[in-house]
Amino acid sequence: MATRFKGLSAFPITPADEAGRVDTQAFSALIERLDTAAVDSVGILGSTGIYMYLSREERRRTVEAAAAVLKGKRTLMAGVGALRTDEAVALAKDAEAAGADALLLAPVSYTPLTQEEAYHHFAAVAGATALPLAIYNNPSTTRFSFSDELLVRLAYIPNIRAIKMPLPADSDYAGELARLRPKLTDGFAIGYSGDWGCAEATLAGGDTWYSVVGGLLPVSALRLMRAAEGGDAEEVRRIDAAFQPLWALFKEFGSIRVVYAAANMLSLTVCEPPRPILPLTSAERQRVEEALDALSSLEAAP
């Protein structure tokens, strides 16, 4: 099961109208693009996929649309985070029934969770289906931090097979991996999100790049990931240099705002982020266009 959590996992946006109704035709086209590029897996209904802005019905429609395109050709991972445990369990069962191959779960909360509360939440969701589950460690959004002790406990739950980690503040990927791997079960996959650091994390031994840009520019992202997987640090730095303007925008405005603007510029969608998130201004969009221009040669077919 751990092999489902390896390589480039591409996370596209979920086009929807102002009422949160998903445009499954536009969404399916985005999934087809990722399938054609041959990403290792597709992650839907993550933060970029606006899962917390969508109803249960719309989330199920989204999984069904993606599964209909992929047809089992590559792993389809669906986010199932929710405030209440029973809701997350229901979403997990929906995702399994709709054709997902794996689950992604964040400890979403309003009242801050304790370590024990998070453990029981994850155990309940992991036990609700036969699907392997990845822990979504996203403290900048959830305001929850997993202790090493909690991760060890979760790793011994049979269906929990991976973790999506934030970039360490000190960028010591090798040190973090060396600390965590001996504590976790054999084959437990450790991957990273935060696109600007994931190639370096892979060079250091990370298993997975959970990628926002992979959902937008899959060919460019795959080139960067394959160089990192091959241990070619020089090529990683060469390719990463072209990404720097985009990384700067991600850090300044948040990747979701930038990716929505970029998807519209590339004629992939005609939609805006869910309110109250506002689209970028015209001056900011100009910077996005310039960043895309810097990547145009990488995204071109080899």
Automatic annotation (TrEMBL):
Leader peptide range in chain numbering: none
Residues forming coiled coils: none
Keyword Transferase: no
Keywords assigned by UniProt, alphabetized: Lyase
CDD domains xref list: DHDPS-like
Domain of life the protein comes from: Bacteria
One Pfam match: DHDPS
Transmembrane segments annotated in the record for this chain: none
Family, as annotated: Belongs to the DapA family.
Protein name according to UniProt: Dihydrodipicolinate synthase
Gene source species: Rhizobium nepotum 39/7
